[in-house]
Specification:
Radius of gyration: 22 Å
Structural class: mainly alpha
Mean pLDDT: 91
Largest sheet: none
Helix content: over 70%
Order of helices and strands: HHHHHHHHHHHHHHHH
Number of strands: 0
Distance between the termini: 39 Å
Low-confidence stretches: 12-25
Shape: elongated
Strand content: under 5%
Length: 286
Protein backbone atom coordinates (compact mmCIF):
# COMPACT_ATOMS: atom_id res chain seq x y z
CA UNK A 1 0.00 0.00 0.00
CA UNK A 2 1.17 3.52 -0.70
CA UNK A 3 2.65 5.59 2.10
CA UNK A 4 -0.20 8.12 1.86
CA UNK A 5 -2.72 5.35 2.46
CA UNK A 6 -0.79 4.12 5.48
CA UNK A 7 -0.68 7.64 6.92
CA UNK A 8 -4.40 8.08 6.42
CA UNK A 9 -5.09 4.77 8.12
CA UNK A 10 -3.00 5.54 11.20
CA UNK A 11 -4.55 9.00 11.48
CA UNK A 12 -7.97 7.37 11.42
CA UNK A 13 -6.92 5.00 14.18
CA UNK A 14 -5.68 7.87 16.31
CA UNK A 15 -8.91 9.78 15.83
CA UNK A 16 -11.24 6.88 16.56
CA UNK A 17 -9.48 4.36 18.77
CA UNK A 18 -7.34 6.36 21.14
CA UNK A 19 -4.55 3.77 20.78
CA UNK A 20 -5.01 2.39 24.29
CA UNK A 21 -3.88 5.53 26.09
CA UNK A 22 -7.12 5.80 27.98
CA UNK A 23 -6.27 2.51 29.70
CA UNK A 24 -2.70 3.51 30.61
CA UNK A 25 -2.14 4.70 34.19
CA UNK A 26 -0.69 8.06 33.13
CA UNK A 27 -3.13 10.41 34.81
CA UNK A 28 -5.85 12.50 33.21
CA UNK A 29 -5.08 14.29 29.99
CA UNK A 30 -5.75 18.00 29.95
CA UNK A 31 -8.90 18.73 27.89
CA UNK A 32 -6.98 21.28 25.85
CA UNK A 33 -4.45 18.61 24.89
CA UNK A 34 -7.20 16.27 23.74
CA UNK A 35 -8.83 18.95 21.62
CA UNK A 36 -5.53 20.15 20.17
CA UNK A 37 -4.61 16.60 19.24
CA UNK A 38 -7.97 16.06 17.58
CA UNK A 39 -7.68 19.27 15.60
CA UNK A 40 -4.04 18.56 14.80
CA UNK A 41 -4.87 15.12 13.43
CA UNK A 42 -7.65 16.69 11.41
CA UNK A 43 -5.28 19.27 9.92
CA UNK A 44 -2.75 16.54 9.19
CA UNK A 45 -5.37 14.50 7.33
CA UNK A 46 -6.22 17.61 5.29
CA UNK A 47 -2.57 18.22 4.42
CA UNK A 48 -2.26 21.45 6.44
CA UNK A 49 1.09 20.52 7.96
CA UNK A 50 2.00 23.85 9.57
CA UNK A 51 -1.30 24.03 11.44
CA UNK A 52 -0.99 20.38 12.43
CA UNK A 53 2.53 20.98 13.77
CA UNK A 54 1.43 23.91 15.91
CA UNK A 55 -1.56 22.08 17.38
CA UNK A 56 0.24 18.80 18.04
CA UNK A 57 3.26 20.49 19.60
CA UNK A 58 0.93 22.33 21.96
CA UNK A 59 -0.82 19.06 22.80
CA UNK A 60 2.42 17.48 24.05
CA UNK A 61 3.27 20.68 25.92
CA UNK A 62 0.03 20.28 27.82
CA UNK A 63 0.62 16.56 28.35
CA UNK A 64 4.16 15.27 27.58
CA UNK A 65 3.01 11.64 27.93
CA UNK A 66 0.21 11.98 25.36
CA UNK A 67 0.84 8.94 23.16
CA UNK A 68 -1.68 9.86 20.47
CA UNK A 69 -0.10 13.25 19.96
CA UNK A 70 3.41 11.77 19.66
CA UNK A 71 2.16 9.33 17.05
CA UNK A 72 0.56 12.15 15.12
CA UNK A 73 3.79 14.11 15.33
CA UNK A 74 5.53 11.09 13.82
CA UNK A 75 3.00 11.03 11.01
CA UNK A 76 3.55 14.73 10.50
CA UNK A 77 7.28 14.21 10.06
CA UNK A 78 6.66 11.37 7.61
CA UNK A 79 4.47 13.72 5.61
CA UNK A 80 7.29 16.28 5.67
CA UNK A 81 9.79 13.65 4.58
CA UNK A 82 11.87 13.73 7.77
CA UNK A 83 12.16 9.99 8.40
CA UNK A 84 14.71 10.29 11.20
CA UNK A 85 12.58 12.69 13.22
CA UNK A 86 9.46 10.61 12.54
CA UNK A 87 11.25 7.60 14.00
CA UNK A 88 12.11 9.59 17.14
CA UNK A 89 8.46 10.58 17.57
CA UNK A 90 7.21 7.00 17.19
CA UNK A 91 9.87 5.68 19.56
CA UNK A 92 8.87 8.32 22.09
CA UNK A 93 5.30 7.00 21.90
CA UNK A 94 6.48 3.40 22.40
CA UNK A 95 8.64 4.46 25.35
CA UNK A 96 5.54 5.88 27.00
CA UNK A 97 3.29 2.95 26.13
CA UNK A 98 4.80 -0.18 24.55
CA UNK A 99 1.28 -1.26 23.53
CA UNK A 100 0.73 1.76 21.27
CA UNK A 101 -0.14 -0.17 18.11
CA UNK A 102 -0.15 2.89 15.87
CA UNK A 103 3.41 3.72 16.87
CA UNK A 104 4.58 0.25 15.85
CA UNK A 105 2.85 0.66 12.49
CA UNK A 106 4.60 4.00 12.08
CA UNK A 107 7.95 2.40 12.90
CA UNK A 108 7.22 -0.22 10.26
CA UNK A 109 6.65 2.52 7.67
CA UNK A 110 9.91 4.18 8.77
CA UNK A 111 11.80 0.90 8.42
CA UNK A 112 10.44 0.39 4.91
CA UNK A 113 11.55 3.87 3.93
CA UNK A 114 15.03 2.94 5.19
CA UNK A 115 14.83 -0.31 3.17
CA UNK A 116 15.14 -2.34 6.38
CA UNK A 117 12.44 -4.85 5.53
CA UNK A 118 13.38 -7.25 8.32
CA UNK A 119 12.79 -4.51 10.87
CA UNK A 120 9.59 -3.47 9.10
CA UNK A 121 8.24 -7.02 9.42
CA UNK A 122 9.16 -7.04 13.10
CA UNK A 123 7.30 -3.79 13.71
CA UNK A 124 4.18 -4.91 11.87
CA UNK A 125 4.21 -8.16 13.84
CA UNK A 126 4.53 -6.16 17.05
CA UNK A 127 1.46 -4.12 16.12
CA UNK A 128 -0.50 -7.31 15.39
CA UNK A 129 0.59 -8.85 18.70
CA UNK A 130 -1.06 -5.87 20.39
CA UNK A 131 -4.23 -6.00 18.29
CA UNK A 132 -4.73 -8.85 15.79
CA UNK A 133 -7.68 -6.95 14.36
CA UNK A 134 -5.52 -4.21 12.84
CA UNK A 135 -5.88 -4.51 9.08
CA UNK A 136 -3.15 -2.17 7.85
CA UNK A 137 -0.09 -3.83 9.44
CA UNK A 138 -1.40 -7.25 8.41
CA UNK A 139 -1.72 -6.10 4.80
CA UNK A 140 1.76 -4.56 4.90
CA UNK A 141 3.22 -7.69 6.48
CA UNK A 142 1.65 -9.86 3.78
CA UNK A 143 3.05 -7.57 1.09
CA UNK A 144 6.57 -7.87 2.51
CA UNK A 145 6.21 -11.64 2.75
CA UNK A 146 5.27 -11.78 -0.92
CA UNK A 147 8.29 -9.65 -1.83
CA UNK A 148 10.66 -12.11 -0.14
CA UNK A 149 8.87 -15.13 -1.56
CA UNK A 150 7.29 -16.40 1.66
CA UNK A 151 4.03 -17.15 -0.15
CA UNK A 152 2.65 -19.70 2.30
CA UNK A 153 2.81 -17.28 5.20
CA UNK A 154 1.57 -14.44 3.00
CA UNK A 155 -1.44 -16.59 2.12
CA UNK A 156 -2.12 -17.23 5.82
CA UNK A 157 -1.86 -13.52 6.67
CA UNK A 158 -4.18 -12.54 3.83
CA UNK A 159 -6.75 -15.11 4.89
CA UNK A 160 -6.75 -13.51 8.32
CA UNK A 161 -6.97 -10.08 6.73
CA UNK A 162 -10.18 -10.85 4.87
CA UNK A 163 -11.67 -12.12 8.12
CA UNK A 164 -11.07 -8.81 9.91
CA UNK A 165 -11.74 -6.58 6.88
CA UNK A 166 -14.02 -8.54 4.60
CA UNK A 167 -15.50 -5.41 2.99
CA UNK A 168 -12.15 -4.21 1.59
CA UNK A 169 -11.50 -5.69 -1.87
CA UNK A 170 -7.73 -5.18 -1.60
CA UNK A 171 -7.32 -8.22 0.64
CA UNK A 172 -9.33 -10.45 -1.66
CA UNK A 173 -7.38 -9.32 -4.72
CA UNK A 174 -4.04 -9.83 -2.97
CA UNK A 175 -5.03 -13.29 -1.73
CA UNK A 176 -6.14 -14.42 -5.18
CA UNK A 177 -2.90 -13.13 -6.72
CA UNK A 178 -0.82 -15.02 -4.15
CA UNK A 179 -2.74 -18.22 -4.82
CA UNK A 180 -2.24 -17.81 -8.57
CA UNK A 181 1.49 -17.33 -7.97
CA UNK A 182 1.42 -20.60 -6.04
CA UNK A 183 -0.43 -22.29 -8.94
CA UNK A 184 -3.33 -23.03 -6.63
CA UNK A 185 -5.97 -22.12 -9.19
CA UNK A 186 -8.89 -24.08 -7.69
CA UNK A 187 -8.39 -22.34 -4.35
CA UNK A 188 -8.00 -18.97 -6.07
CA UNK A 189 -11.21 -19.60 -8.00
CA UNK A 190 -13.05 -20.22 -4.74
CA UNK A 191 -11.71 -16.93 -3.37
CA UNK A 192 -12.97 -15.12 -6.49
CA UNK A 193 -16.43 -16.65 -6.01
CA UNK A 194 -16.46 -15.74 -2.33
CA UNK A 195 -15.34 -12.19 -3.12
CA UNK A 196 -18.21 -11.84 -5.58
CA UNK A 197 -20.63 -13.07 -2.92
CA UNK A 198 -19.26 -10.80 -0.19
CA UNK A 199 -18.52 -7.67 -2.22
CA UNK A 200 -20.95 -7.83 -5.12
CA UNK A 201 -20.38 -6.55 -8.63
CA UNK A 202 -17.71 -3.85 -8.47
CA UNK A 203 -14.56 -3.04 -10.44
CA UNK A 204 -12.30 -5.05 -8.15
CA UNK A 205 -14.39 -8.20 -8.44
CA UNK A 206 -14.70 -7.74 -12.20
CA UNK A 207 -10.90 -7.59 -12.33
CA UNK A 208 -10.71 -10.83 -10.36
CA UNK A 209 -13.10 -12.47 -12.82
CA UNK A 210 -11.01 -11.22 -15.73
CA UNK A 211 -7.82 -12.53 -14.14
CA UNK A 212 -9.49 -15.91 -13.62
CA UNK A 213 -10.55 -15.93 -17.27
CA UNK A 214 -6.94 -15.22 -18.27
CA UNK A 215 -5.65 -18.07 -16.13
CA UNK A 216 -8.20 -20.39 -17.73
CA UNK A 217 -7.22 -19.31 -21.24
CA UNK A 218 -10.59 -17.67 -21.86
CA UNK A 219 -8.97 -14.67 -23.49
CA UNK A 220 -11.93 -13.16 -25.32
CA UNK A 221 -14.05 -13.14 -22.15
CA UNK A 222 -11.18 -11.57 -20.22
CA UNK A 223 -10.64 -8.88 -22.86
CA UNK A 224 -14.29 -7.84 -22.79
CA UNK A 225 -14.13 -7.30 -19.02
CA UNK A 226 -10.73 -5.60 -19.13
CA UNK A 227 -11.68 -3.19 -21.93
CA UNK A 228 -14.47 -1.84 -19.76
CA UNK A 229 -12.28 -1.68 -16.64
CA UNK A 230 -9.40 0.03 -18.47
CA UNK A 231 -11.62 3.11 -18.84
CA UNK A 232 -11.80 3.48 -15.06
CA UNK A 233 -9.91 6.38 -13.44
CA UNK A 234 -6.87 5.94 -11.26
CA UNK A 235 -5.12 2.72 -10.31
CA UNK A 236 -7.97 0.46 -11.41
CA UNK A 237 -7.80 1.73 -14.98
CA UNK A 238 -4.03 1.35 -15.09
CA UNK A 239 -4.10 -2.16 -13.63
CA UNK A 240 -6.85 -3.31 -15.96
CA UNK A 241 -5.07 -1.70 -18.91
CA UNK A 242 -1.92 -3.63 -18.12
CA UNK A 243 -3.77 -6.94 -18.02
CA UNK A 244 -5.62 -5.97 -21.20
CA UNK A 245 -2.29 -5.51 -22.91
CA UNK A 246 -1.13 -8.90 -21.60
CA UNK A 247 -4.34 -10.59 -22.76
CA UNK A 248 -4.07 -9.14 -26.26
CA UNK A 249 -0.44 -10.21 -26.46
CA UNK A 250 -1.40 -13.74 -25.41
CA UNK A 251 -4.05 -13.72 -28.12
CA UNK A 252 -1.40 -12.78 -30.68
CA UNK A 253 -2.66 -9.23 -31.20
CA UNK A 254 0.70 -7.44 -30.92
CA UNK A 255 -0.64 -4.17 -32.29
CA UNK A 256 -3.53 -4.15 -29.83
CA UNK A 257 -1.21 -5.14 -27.00
CA UNK A 258 1.15 -2.27 -27.77
CA UNK A 259 -1.73 0.19 -27.95
CA UNK A 260 -3.06 -0.92 -24.57
CA UNK A 261 0.42 -0.84 -23.01
CA UNK A 262 1.11 2.65 -24.39
CA UNK A 263 -2.17 3.89 -22.93
CA UNK A 264 -1.12 2.62 -19.50
CA UNK A 265 2.38 4.07 -19.78
CA UNK A 266 0.87 7.40 -20.69
CA UNK A 267 -0.71 7.38 -17.24
CA UNK A 268 2.17 5.72 -15.38
CA UNK A 269 5.52 5.50 -17.21
CA UNK A 270 6.80 2.98 -14.63
CA UNK A 271 3.97 0.45 -14.78
CA UNK A 272 5.78 -2.89 -14.64
CA UNK A 273 3.24 -4.99 -16.52
CA UNK A 274 2.86 -2.48 -19.36
CA UNK A 275 6.64 -2.19 -19.67
CA UNK A 276 6.92 -5.97 -19.84
CA UNK A 277 4.30 -6.19 -22.59
CA UNK A 278 6.01 -3.42 -24.57
CA UNK A 279 9.30 -5.29 -24.29
CA UNK A 280 7.71 -8.51 -25.54
CA UNK A 281 6.00 -6.73 -28.40
CA UNK A 282 9.27 -5.20 -29.55
CA UNK A 283 10.98 -8.56 -29.83
CA UNK A 284 11.22 -10.00 -33.38
CA UNK A 285 8.24 -12.20 -34.25
CA UNK A 286 9.01 -15.89 -34.04
Amino acid sequence: MKASSRLAWVVACVLTLGLFLGCAPRGPIHPNAIELNRLGAQALAQGDLDTAAARLSLAVEYHPLFVEAWINLGLLELARGDVALAEKRFRRAVAIDKDAGGAWVGLGVVAEKKHDFVEAERCYRAALAIDPGLAEPRADLARLLVLRGALDEARDQLRRLIEVQSDDPAGWVALAEVLWRMDRDPEASQIVDEAMMRLGDRPETQLLLARRDLRAGELHEAIVRLEALAKSPGAMGRTAGGWLAAARLELGDREGAMAAAKAVLGRDPEDALALHVMGECQKPAQ
